[in-house]
Amino acid sequence: MQNKLMTHIVAGYPTLKESENIAIKMLECGVDFLEIQIPFSDPVADGPTIMRANDVALRNGVKLKDCFELMEKIHKIFPQAQLLFMTYFNVIYKHGVEKFCKKVKACGCYGLIVPDMPIYEEKNEHYLAACKKYGLNPIQIISPLTTVGRLKKLSKYARGFVYCVSRYGTTGQSKSLNPKLAKYLKTARKYFKIPLAVGFGISKKEHVQAVHKYAEIAVVGSRIINAIDKKEDINKLLRNFRN
Question: How much is the pTM?
Answer without folding.
Answer: 0.92
